[in-house]
Design goal:
The chain has 10 helices and 6 strands; from the N terminus they run E-E-E-H-H-H-H-H-H-H-H-H-E-E-E-H. The chain is mainly alpha-helical and 249 residues long. Strands 1-2-3 form a 3-stranded antiparallel beta sheet, covered by helices on one side. The longest helix has 21 residues.
């Protein structure tokens, strides 16, 4: 049953039905309120009705803040994600209610970001927002589709195809010789990177307890994908590690 109440210059309609929470919405004209009430009642009659109140009353910014509070702290890249999402909260996209996050809105956000950011940055931002929307749908019962899955993603530029040649390597390592105030670990770090192809974070996270020079292996307990793995060490990598002070961990 729908009831209508005039509130100032607008009309508030409330739809009550046994087994459903009250559906309430305000319109500038009674005709619009009546049409909405009939639509809601019709959806309830066809059963099972999904209330959109939560999506209409919650901004995307509110969802992002909740995600930052409940989910982001438990992620390995939580600090970087917090910085990116905090910046997103200053953008117009965060002011939309969840129900109004349409493909058109996200496409406009994409195009605006491309004016000041590289395509790779925009792709990463869209992926982060898509994860938040999917989490809100699956875990927090927001009855919406994910509009990011419906829009075109920016075209990524071709990857780099340059390979570090022997001459370039000699020049690089010469520049990294520990002279003056230069960190004496810089050259060994670069050699390990060349020999193992480990990521920067993996190299910086190495501990002596995880390095076996006799077996020529390094154990990485945590990697980018969350799994541990062993990395073979070449003879050059082993010789380089032997020159590093073991008091440094």
């Amino acid at each position: 049953m729908a009831t209508f109440r005039k509130r100032g210059n607008s009309w508030q309609v409330r739809v009550r039905r046994l087994g459903y929470p009250d559906e309430v919405k305000t319109f500038p004209m009674k005709f619009d309120a009546e049409q909405w009430a009939r639509s809601v009642e019709s959806d309830m009659d066809r059963g099972p009705f999904v209330s959109k109140n939560i999506a209409e009353q919650t901004s995307f910014g509110d969802v992002i803040r909740r995600y930052m509070k409940e989910i982001t702290p438990g992620k390995r890249g939580g600090r970087d994600e917090t910085i990116r999402l905090t910046a997103t909260l200053r953008l117009k996209i965060s002011k939309y209610c969840m129900a109004n996050l349409t493909p058109e809105v996200l496409a406009a956000y994409r195009d605006e970001r491309l004016k000041s950011c590289q395509p790779s940055t925009v792709v990463r931002d869209l992926a982060a927002l898509s994860s938040i929307i999917n989490h809100a749908r699956r875990e927090w019962s927001f009855p919406i589709q994910n509009p990011i899955e419906m829009i075109r993603k920016p075209t990524m530029p071709p990857g780099r195809d340059r390979v570090l040649g022997r001459t370039d390597e000699v020049i690089l390592l010469t520049e990294l010789l520990p002279t003056g105030r230069r960190n004496p670990l810089m050259q060994p770090l670069v050699v390990i990177a060349i020999e193992t192809a480990m990521r920067r974070g993996e190299i910086l996270g190495l501990r002596w307890e995880h390095v076996d020079l006799d077996q020529q292996t390094a154990f990485l307990p945590i990697t980018k994908n969350g799994k541990s793995r062993y990395v073979p060490l070449s003879r050059r990598a082993v010789e380089t590690l032997r020159t590093v002070d073991r008091s440094i961990d």
